[in-house]
Design a protein that fits this description.
Layout (H helix, E strand, L loop, with lengths): L1 E6 L2 E4 L4 E9 L6 E7 L6 E9 L2 E7 L7 E6 L4 E6 L8 E8 L8 E4 L3 E6 L1
Parallel strand pairs: 2-11
Antiparallel strand pairs: 1-3, 3-8, 4-5, 4-9, 5-6, 7-8, 9-10, 9-11
Length: 124
């Protein structure tokens, strides 16, 4: 089992920034890919970004078109923590942000472990 805990959400004005964290514990040696998803009220879960690594080195980062150039995904192997730096936020980014561990794809069904989520609210 892998446990994931997100933090860093909050209320921010449009144009502002936030950094989300996702701390992993448990059988983290079995994890080689993690991702961020978001879900707004009444909408389906949406892919945001994913990162994969091998032997401690990052292999790839992928982003949804809607966040490309504004969000940056990263990982600190020593801390077993993944981050999402979010800049130039706009109200459309308002959602619950969830981190997940799995295969690093854009499809949420390919992720085996999920955190509880952290709320991000962007005011206009």
């Amino acid at each position: 089992q892998v446990q994931l805990v997100e933090s860093g959400g909050g209320l921010v004005q449009a144009g502002g920034s936030l950094r989300l964290s996702c701390a992993a514990s448990g059988r983290t040696f079995s994890v080689y890919a993690m991702g961020w998803f978001r879900q707004a009220p009444g909408k389906e879960r949406e892919f945001v970004a994913a990162i994969t690594w091998s032997g401690g080195r990052t292999v790839s980062r992928v982003y949804a078109d809607s966040v490309k150039g504004r969000f940056t995904i990263s990982r600190d192997n020593a801390k077993n923590t993944m981050y999402l730096q979010m800049n130039s936020l706009n109200p459309e980014d308002t959602a619950v942000y969830l981190c997940a561990a799995g295969r690093g794809s854009r499809n949420p069904v390919e992720y085996d472990y999920w955190g509880q989520g952290t709320q991000v609210t962007v005011s206009s």
